[in-house]
Queue: 4 jobs
Job 1
Amino acid sequence: MAWQLIYTSAPRLLEAGRTGFGTVARHRAVSGMLAASVERFSQFARLPGHDPRRIVHTHRILILGSSTYHVLSCLQDAGSDYTGRTNHIAHHLIAEPREIRALASAGLTPADVLLAMPWRSSWSEGPRYLDPSEEINLASFTPSASNAWASVTGNPASAGILWSREALKGCYLITPPGINTLELFRESLLVEPSQAWQTRFTTCLEPNDDVADFRWVALTSASPMRTQVETTSRLVLDLTAPATLPEPPKKQAPPPLIETVNHGTPAPAHPMVASVPAPLPSSPAAPAPISSMGSWSPEPRRKAAKSNRSFIGISLIIASIMIVVVLGALLRQRNLKVQARAEYEQKIDSTWQNHQLILSETRRLLEEQTDLGEGEALLKSHENFFRGMQQALQQPGSPTELPLPAQTQDDLEDLKKRLAEWTALHVNPWADLQSGQATVTAQGILEAYHKWQQSRTSTWNRLSTFLSLKDLPPPGEDVLQSLMTAARDALRSAKPAHDSRPSWAKVFALPGAPQNSSALEALQWLKLWGELENPVASSDAAAQTAASDASLPEWLRAWVAEKKQPHTSKNAPRMAVKTDDKPAQKAPEPAIVIEDADAVSATNGIYLYLLQPSEEPAGKIDGLQVSPDMQLFVGTAWERHPPPDGKPQPKEGELKKWMGVSSDDSEKLKFSPTLLAQLTQMIAFSKDGMLTAFPEELRKSPDGVRIVARSKDGVKVLFDLRLIPISSASSRPMLTQAIESTVINAAAVTLKLPPGFLSRLHFVGQQELRYALRHDGPANQKKFFTLKSTGDSSFQVIPPVIQNGSVVSRKEIENKIKVLEAGIAKDIEYLAENESSKESLKIKTEKRDRYEKSKAEKENQLQALQTQLQSLEGNAPPHFDLLPGNFILALEQPNQIELCRLNVVPPASPSPLKLTNP
């Protein structure tokens, strides 16, 4: 029976969390390594010249470790996939040698199977493992007759051309249109049926194919791969010109029978009967000798019987011993295999514990290795990666090589990307704060430092998806040392703003900053700066003291020199100027207020949409307020859109205006970045407010897309649409506004946001929005709060739980519950897969015990957390001193997306609600 594997494009693949092209169905007997090898030759090219309606049949012999597999494949076009793009399907049959031997003895060839198999042309089901009943009985296929070679060359004997001495080294077959190449191969395989299943072939050469995988390679006369044929050393058989084909090899006649000729005696006219020699006459029996022992005589027959019985007994004993020895050897070999498997799995456990790994997909890949030799080599290559990973975590500023193993899973590749992000954050993070740039300010340095810390926190949190990490480690002294040096050089290079001394003091007092020569020197400058600003006489004394210090910055020395000069007073009296009577005032005309899309006071809707990888958003976003003559502004998701100022070109970091290209009678509103843009580069909306076309270039932008629509006169904002990749949405707030929120009820801890702000938000795809509050600070000071809506933009803060002297929020408990529930579901899945596996009973029992123990531990933890969550309602409200500060307003679903920064102030604060741009 042959196994099946089906490869195509689908919204969900068999491997959890993956979309696009991949395996959607296979038998469980197909291991992960075997499936990965088969997936490699499942590509269907879309090159000019390749007929998209072609069907590719191949026969490959795949060797993995000590195992051999015959793979029979059919690749063909499958229409459009779930995103509307081109799709194809690769359907594979995988057979073991014992199945192939039965087919060979029955006279079936690989071409017979490929011709008779009902191949799938599409896949509309969900991903699944195929049942054992869906294994294919290849012996049930029957061969079909054909005369393909006669129709091409006029001579059926031409089928033997593929067995010529040159063709056996490998050959190309150029086929004319309308010829079934598979029938040609079938007729040729029947010429040498004993070699049929050792012959690898393809009916159409694909760009990703390795020609060395095949002995016979066919391609059409119009194939774009013809250039490869022209430079090859292989034999080329052009069936479009039959006259150029070589003569088929002639079968050698059997050797003639060799006859012995006797020249001395003439041959008889008829066969002679051989004479049979007569038996020799037996001599008369001699009389038996007279026994000297009376009437007793020996009985040789009885003695022989006794000897035979002894021989049989000895033989049985020897056979029993041999059986015992063989059984003992087999049992010992089995025990050794079981012991080796247990030691291998123990090594995997040790690796996961030593490196604090969570990589479930990678662990499963290693545990499913059937060949322990290959498994040991694969585990070793993973351990090399994990050692490099530890170095990248502990010394992120040092370059580290992280070569991926030969076979990987998605979670390991994602971990490598996160590690690369972590390392990139620590390699020259202050490159923009170089000496000599007059634009570097203290506020800019502080903002760069805080953004860098936020990026470190976000990247560390993403790493915790793959690793059991502790709290975020503080920045290394070398990183802060380079920041202090860059800040000192910036302070030296240009005269700072008059009122920026407090900000510069904050720079050189950052937590963990080393008090080295750079910081101490800058602090001395700031001290002198403060003394010079002091209006009392001591500033003159400070100037006199610092006059001889040549190490001061140039701007500070100039100030010192100015202080040393004598003061001259100019007290000239001022003359009063008499003004004429004011003219009569006209009534002011009402001013036209142009709406600011980035202001909290704006009333337009804000539509947020999370883009999945390779997702097409067209057709999924509707309800937008559109106008036939509206203006459109486009840029990255975090670029600003202030009120139009009439200038033709926007400033750096602002959205750019796109041109409208729609006519009045058009059913769609189209906008283009340039006059000569193609249709695929345009954004289009239907007249009822649906996004109907979206450029691929914008969809692939790592910074997302922001689209703001304004009325024809540019006064009113119609809508603000932001499409943000899900990978970017977890690294920074989705909105650029920093909102100030007031505690209006300190006893119940109720927050008030600007009126109408939350009602403007429309999170596409989410029916109900639930909010949470997260502290925006160092990891060791983070606070988490759940928010309960009490009205329009008002929330009651649900208090945290005090557990063992530390603050534990409701949100943390709910997150832990979700993780445990997912882990229990995974254990149940592993238990089901373990029961249906083909491993030995002992290994299955060991795995079952381990999964059940893990499941029981998670269930106990889940019950304790659920009890703890139920007891939250009886806790006292939090003290107010827990709240003031910078927070992140987040959405609980999906994925705790950060919405905007929130500055929480006490109720007595006189500051009105306002918007500040970071």
Job 2
Amino acid sequence: MIKSINEIENKTKQLFKRISKIMAPPPNLSVSEWADVYRRLSSEASAEPGQWRTERAPYQKKIMDEINNPRVEIIILMTSAQVGKTEIILNAIGYFIDYDPSPIMVVQPTVEMAETFSKTRLAPMLRDTPALKGKVADIKSRNSSNTILEKSFPGGVIVMVGANSSSALASRPIRVLLADEVDRFPASAGTEGDPVSLAEKRTTTFSNRKKIFVSTPTIKGASRIEKFYNSSNQQHWHLPCPSCGEHQQLKWGQITFEYDDVKEEVICVKHRCKFCGFAYGEYEWKTGEGKWIADNPNSSIVGFHINELASPWKHWDEIVVDFKQAKKDGKESLKVWVNTSLGETWEEKGVGLESDELLSRREEYSCDVPENVAVLTAGVDVQDNRLEYEVVGWGINKESWGIEYGVLMGDPGKSFVWKALDDVLFKTFSRADGVPLNIMSTCVDTGGHHTSSAYAYCKDRELQRVWAIKGIGGSGHSFIKRPKRREQSGVYLFTIGVDVGKDTLVSRLTAKPDQNGYCHFPFETEKGYDDAYFKGLTAEHRVTRYKNGQTVIKWEKKSISARNEPFDLRNYATAALEILNPNINAILNQLNGEQSFIPKKIKKRRRVVSKGIS
């Protein structure tokens, strides 16, 4: 009897121990501490898979831990690439799923990007982090509440939406808002207004709400993240000088480097101290103990800015190489480098082009196509009483040559006009060395009053790579969006982000002869490059407008009566090249007889494979 009583007492004690473990509150961990204990990096999403270590990038600690600060509601993160900002978002998501269950919304610029984030970043973390595994139901399980864009877990849900979807943004109350790449958000979510404001309204019912806005910046004056950051306490990451110990930001203006232009390699890179003037290399600076210092400490909004110079995953010599290449590629590439490497906005110094300069630099071709051209593409614009077209030649590093610009008068509702276009698109052009070339890819604008005729023309000529396109203006759109299926008319319709293309085009038009993307134009009058062409090529300028309280930068005609078809057509011909995506170096080598571009066993099909290049 005594033994049985003791056994009962022992079992009772063990039961209460187990109950106490279950009922005990979790340890008081911050987001960074949770990540250091539980987070596992996945091999397909990280160059350093395995256990997360905040000490690998010490600047991340304070950013993550401010999420736990009860006095902080809004956190702004304006950064370059390669500083781990997406991992910070993922750590926050993991923390709230495992440690503080709450309804969470992740906003990406588009629905497609939200799906990509879910599949390539969130799903691997849920799979490989043991603390999260099993808390979110398997998407393939029967009766699962887990979809690509919505994942339930005990005590909460995570919803991923696109900033271009007003219905998704207004779907439900949320406590934690994570908005990624806000500078790529459209100015308005449909007709509902600013997507950031719509998303913020979802948090109003929670007194302990958290709103985190993250992005690399874009253009000064139009950048959402810059506007948010300027209203924050403006913290910058500072490191001590290896000589005098004074803390300071790592700035590109204080970088000095030696570069071998012949070998195209960096010899030496150093950062000069703004206090003592001594310069030290990357290792000496990054081994110092850094700290965040606020420029506007009285603000209740917490904001952080950091660039690639402080990143452990991007070395200074790589940044210098990127800078040299961006400078060579032209203004548009340099703008991207400033945004993504320095984490700074780009300040526009010019808003358009003048025609006289382009007209004066025309050159005598004395042939149909100059010898450095490897590929021909074309753009076609459909007007009420005519078709306009341009044929463009392309060489290495996107160097281009205007080949032929023309107008085919007639009603596009009549077949004879399209037959005349066939005579242009399927004729043979001769290079200076006698090699014949055919147009390899064509984009036809299907907007306007003759959409059905344009669709029918493109559908019948898809094998000749004649593509139907539809332009869409504004920011937040990629240059080329490839169709996943045919339209109801039976045609594949490509969507073209025309403003993105125009930004690139103007960058190339302003490039110098030794820069990538330089544009050549012929002097011969029969080729169509006259004064009217260049006025049309420069008929638009980039302007700043305000829509729904947001700054919007867009392309507009300089005057209502201006004819901008040449500008549009060069954009379409460029889109045709991007859709084709040819290996220009290999094709040029083939044309010049330096190597065989097509395997010998199928040389007899050469014309079919290379679309008419003989």
Job 3
Amino acid sequence: MTFGASGRRRAAGRRIAAALALAGTTALAFTSAPTASATAVADASTTAASTTYVDCSRPTAGDGSQTSPLNSIAQANARTYAPGDTLAFASGTTCTGTLAPKGSGTATAPITLTSYGTGALPVIDGNGAADAVLLSNQDHWRVGNLHLTNPAATLARRTGLRITATDGRAHRGFDIGPLIVDRVAGQTDKTSPTTEDFVQSAGIVTGASGTNSTLHDVHVHHNRISNTGGGGLKIRVGAMAVKGSGVLIEHNTIKDVGGDGIIASYADAPMIQYNNASGVGNGVYPFSGGNFAGIWVLGDHNPTIQKNAVYGITRMSVADSQAFDCDWGNTGTCTVQYNFSRDNIGGFFLDCDGCGTIGGARQIIRFNISENDCRMSSVSAGRSALHLYNNVFYCTDRKLDITLPDESVVENNIWVGTPDSRLPTAPGVQWLWNVFQGVPRPTANGIAGDPRFVNPGTGGDSLHSADGYKLRSTSPALDNGSVISGNGGRDYWGNPVSTTTKPHRGAYNGPGL
């Protein structure tokens, strides 16, 4: 897999390998806490650190031992935790208020916030406060196996979990997940005067403010987020002038959130992968003003969005509501690859480099499958060069609405559309080696005809539901596409893609079926 410079690949590979190693112990933690909790407590004990137990169902406060636990968030907040310590909440209980534990861990001995006992995950209920859980200017925390909620009768700047850096220093080492975050009454209106409240509202928010404040090594994984005003995950780790690093956002499920699904901003080489986002903009606290998108990046250097599924965005914002967006201020290369997108009212992709500070990132959009999105848009004031190749765009229920950056190379894609569709033909847009069914060819170049998909239009609710877009052995798109160097080395399904032999057109490069 090729994502840019070799150093970036190695760094991304280390983060991904570490995440996959964790996945085996965290993926099942939502239904039963004992295994993950016991592991966390055991890890802490091996460092000769202490564990503080909290059971908010107890009528009296104890000393924090397992047999005599604390019984309130205020008592948990009153202690300062040391490297290797664990703060554990009793399963099947609810604690009310903002949990803001003090202290920092180290890289070899992080502090763990988790659950203990059997039964449902313990609930931390912010009860309308700004945050249910808050970590500020701290380092090396593991947070998982909790249920966070923060409902209220009115909307305001609210989160389930907030991690902030405000002191002009670099803070690092945050492993976030698995968590359930549900019903957070965050702000859903992005227009003035509530714009900043919206930006700071979501299920999980990280932020860095103040000169030279940054966050690093932020791993957000295996969380289930729903009904959170403002959005699902907003991972901001720096600023335009100084960026955070080590951001990995993966294996999260975002459903019915009133704002952006996932955004990573001001990061060096962030990776967003294996996430599932549906119904973005809806939920108990639905989006109410301005713009939002499914998964997007802003102010990053060399961001990658890959192997995600985004579907069912039915609420149209002012101009966006796309599945994916390379927004303003990105530098280097913004890569969107191997994603599945379906039935999003704002379309598949937005180029918005002209929406703010122009970063001029090169945009590589490859090996994605878009079903019934029917729209791509671009803000032409940007300076991005788009290379759009080996994608599938399938839209048979309404005409395609496609706007591309002024400098675009469009090759090896398969376009299925309606006869009244018109693809852009501006002087800076090159059309090479595409297949067009239904939609008229924008130039003489390309194949006009049926691409012979196995079973198109049958995409479902996951990355793995797109097998209908593999090609039959009778397809006219086999083995006659343009050879592209630096093509990532594989197709949507993981089949190899050569840099010397002609590939198929579209997202599939395996044997004809």
Job 4
Amino acid sequence: MAPAHENSAYESSYSRPLGNAPAGRRRGPALPLALAGVVYALVSLVNQYNFRTAALDLGLAAQVVGDWAHGRVAYAALLLDSPPTNFLSVHFSLTPVLAVPLYWLVGGAWALLLMQLGAVLLGALGVWRYARARGATGGEARWALAFFCCQWGIFSALGFDYHDNVVGAMAVPWLALWAGQGRWGWAAAAALFLLVSKENMALWLVFVLLGLAWQHRHRRGAVAGLGLAAAGALGYFLLVTHWVMPALDVAQRPFSQVVRYRQWGASVPGMAWNLLCHPQLLAQALFCNTDPSGAYDYVKLELWGALLCSGALALRRQPWYALMLVPIVGQKLLANDPALWGINQQYSIEFAPVLALALVDAVRRRPAGSARRRGWRWALAGAAGFTLVTLYARQSKWYDRATTNFLTGRHYRCPYDRAALRAALARLPARGPLSVQSNLVPQLPAPRRLYLFPVLRDAAGVVLLRHPDEAAGWPLRPEESQKALAQLRARPDFRVAYEDAQLVVFARRGPVPDPAEVLHF
């Protein structure tokens, strides 16, 4: 336990704004950032190059970028459960607009992946700057940067294409930095960026702002400003999810994400009250498999182990950071969808910046010198070790090492003849709606009307791989994809317009009999 005078000094540091980086020899973060950028590119960009990206969410977001680049309203046509509808009714996210300039150079999908990669590096730079403002030496700040960059949540997210919450989460270190320094204009800009990055991020922002208010509780002006901002963020979340998104939806449907939590109550307040009144239900939901299938046993425990290995112990004396993570833990573990429970995909990215900031402040409590170096070494070893192990194997389901583990040769091998497949896709007509398999969607130029096969609707053509794997043919299983291919060959209203060893392109003949058609198996 730290001496009483040390704890007192630590507490008093929150009663004044953060400083700037201490003077002296300054070795910047350029080299570790460059190294992280190379590694992240090997994960994310290689997947796009090797046809391992998907229609949702990268293909959908790429179509949005293309529409916005041409000054058009963006419609989401790739959804399986909805006719084409305004994109903002699906995800109220404005961050794809940042990819519009890059769209004109590299296309929508590549622009989004590059923007996401750059955002993660900016988040890492924010952690470095925060550490320096907290009084860390250059070496200690680089330890903090390395700790953030090796987080498993980042690798899981980058291994699964593009997602707006990854970009938005990277504003948190800058928000914490500027709020601590009393630079309220810049802090407001960071909060606004997080607010509009995705509709559910607005709710997370409420807890982030309240956590910052708790952290800086000795600064009355800061507490008042952060509290008002939290109330504004909550109002924005309610306005967008309860009125704006349903109004933009073609079917006027209510906010759809709540359905993942309906087992706890009919409304959000009812869910919260039910769980608070029945703590045994809450404990079971947080730690146990609540799905009838035993296949998901221990998935939630793997998440808790991930947090313990990645700096969660730093939350013990800094409960404001734990408060920031409450909605993220609830969003994951209270859902009825086991895909959210574990450490896969983009659902854990928010942990990375918060744990990094918490660890910066926790290690700072140690005496300068060897004690701090040991703290950073142990923290980095825990996070990096867990990430390394889970690149190869994890309890969480549906993990594909080929998409995320950049240390294996399989990650760099493409199951297709890339040049031949791209040449075949280039032969597709430039106009007309198409029904396309998932991994082909991000490869096609935007904007154009695309449906995710087996949705046909009014498609003028259908583009299918002859032998797709499960990821490429999703939502169909490989055997269902083969049945679909045979079914289209037998239909008189479709003819084979192009075929080679990898790809089959069907063209529709005659009028569209059913503009809402979806193939079923």
